[in-house]
Amino acid sequence: MKLQVTQENLNKALGTVARVANTRNALPILANVLLKTTNNRLSVAATNLDIAITEYCGAKVSEEGSITVPARLMQDFISNLPHGVIELRLEENKLHISTDQYNSVINGVVADDFPVMPAITDGKTWQISGQQLKKGLQQVIFAASNDQTRPVLTGVLLHSVKGMIYLAATDSHRLAEKNLGASEDTYSLLIPATAMQDLLRIIGDLEGDVRITSDDQQVLFQAGDVELVARLIDANYPDYRRLIPESFQVVATVKRTDLVNVTKVSSLFARESAGSITMNIDEQAQTISVRSVASQLGENTSNATGKVTGSGSITLNSRYLLDALQVMNGDEVSFCFNGKLEAAVVRDPKADDYVHIIMPLKS
Amino acid sequence: MKLQVTQENLNKALGTVARVANTRNALPILANVLLKTTNNRLSVAATNLDIAITEYCGAKVSEEGSITVPARLMQDFISNLPHGVIELRLEENKLHISTDQYNSVINGVVADDFPVMPAITDGKTWQISGQQLKKGLQQVIFAASNDQTRPVLTGVLLHSVKGMIYLAATDSHRLAEKNLGASEDTYSLLIPATAMQDLLRIIGDLEGDVRITSDDQQVLFQAGDVELVARLIDANYPDYRRLIPESFQVVATVKRTDLVNVTKVSSLFARESAGSITMNIDEQAQTISVRSVASQLGENTSNATGKVTGSGSITLNSRYLLDALQVMNGDEVSFCFNGKLEAAVVRDPKADDYVHIIMPLKS
Q1: Which residue range forms the structural domain that includes residue B262?
Q2: Which residues in chain A have their CB less than 8 angstroms from residue B104's CB?
Q3: B211 touches chain A (CB under 8 A)
Q4: What pLDDT, in 10s, does the model give residues A67-99?
Q5: How many CB contacts within 8 angstroms connect chain A with chain B?
Q6: B234: buried, middle or exposed (CB in 10 Å: 19+, 13-18, 0-12)?
């Protein structure tokens, strides 16, 4: 292998893939990145067996070849080199990296041992605007669970229902669903939320579409020069749509920033009660007041005024409410519920493509 | 106690003092801040018994008084309130905090139990430009030791020698000294580096002088509306000035950014050898080349060209060299030494108010 590549391109590719490589894995080669010449391009790839990410960058290849080198060292090294042309040259599994000022040798491991995710065959392919997918993912991904003992809830569901595409995630305490628009295809992909975090990073400022190809086992996302392959979670997702209430006895619509601020201040007094705050909605006063009590430290009541129908109170986890409010865009937000034992819903009164459900705490 | 204060002022004062308060201390009240009306101002203070910081802020006091409240809760709470006037009112050790929208009660502890550092009596006072002191501290403070088993090296020495004021710090592997200019007074204060970190933060963008008052036991820094009192370290500082070499056989003067870059790149290959890099200075080629070898990973040689007198090589810790280079200002830097077993010196060829010494490693 012998080639020239710019520091800018190689650094970008390593930045995209290297964090998937992991030194804590049982298989030492998974701490490496795979460098491989492909059709006069250099592909840079890393995998943790669940996810594989590959970025292709332009290169001037004079000898084909491949090698794997430690991801962290390679990334740190290349990122510290000055902009300009870098020569990569392989001699007996030693990768020689040269510029005018720098001469380095990094010991590699032959590429034959690097695990490759199986190819997707007979998959179907469709595409969606990258920025639309990114926005949707940001609005649901945090609602997925981290609890590996219930793998089904650690996924983000990307599926079609009655001609619409939806993203959904839930950890059983809260649930987020985003409508991504109409689609003619039908599918249901349960993708690990961690893979979707990587996809968010990869989409970045991408203009244009992301191509999605899937079979029963895997899904491939292609965004610009980057490919991400993830294993699907093999489980039946709960029928969450029947949990979304359709009408409400109490609806308070307030400025979103007001509700963020009063919730944030109240949450400070809710640390010892696992974030528990009580929302009191008063139709007569047209207010939402948020109350929290810390037996040792003190207590707080904060008020926001708005447009209120119905009165009542409900106790919930302030962190879940803040998480939801912070991914919404509108100036106003509607906080809706039916009774203190039923799920509360947060939504934008002017946009019905996003719904967020929070289960109440016992009070 | 009853008073009005702006959120901006109270938030700034809490930001200055609260990080000294510590919940991990054996004395629970040290996790609190002391609020106290003083001459129509509100003083906000915290201490860890080694350091005490007090900030005074303008307030409209209608009833004098004092109380202590949990520092972290108070700071988080006030920082989340909107700008504008806040009312503080004390009722039976409960601090009521109110704005238009927010009503909170924080349970306090009477101020009588709050430990106060003894006053400095018979101390002498002098002053120095705040920005000059800050710049000097930034150039020496990182050379102080963290090793609490040798308290003398955990301090920064502020002393006068032959009519000049110097700041100095050393951890025995490296030594930094800054000349702060002429002074008529004579003194020698060994101040904990941790207190100087707080002072750096307090000086911030302060225009004008810092007043320094000291006796045998303590030192008081007054910077704007903030006072910091620190206990002095009771130990004899080593006679470090005799370690500074006065002439050199090998001197290489190069662009500072070049030396930073080649050292940084080399340090990546020096992780398994505790940062060990070898500097080779070649008079004929007029180069500094930096070499590092990692038995498993590979090796690197990086070059910088400059103006070189004498040839030789020396092995040292790349982190120490980077630390020194990063607090210097000039475009150029001189790297000087006499032999591979003697201290190397890093200095600005155009400024003689700063000198940095690095002890060699055995190679």
Answers
A1: 245-358
A2: 265, 269, 298-301
A3: no
A4: 999 999 999 999 999 999 999 999 999 999 999
A5: 88
A6: exposed
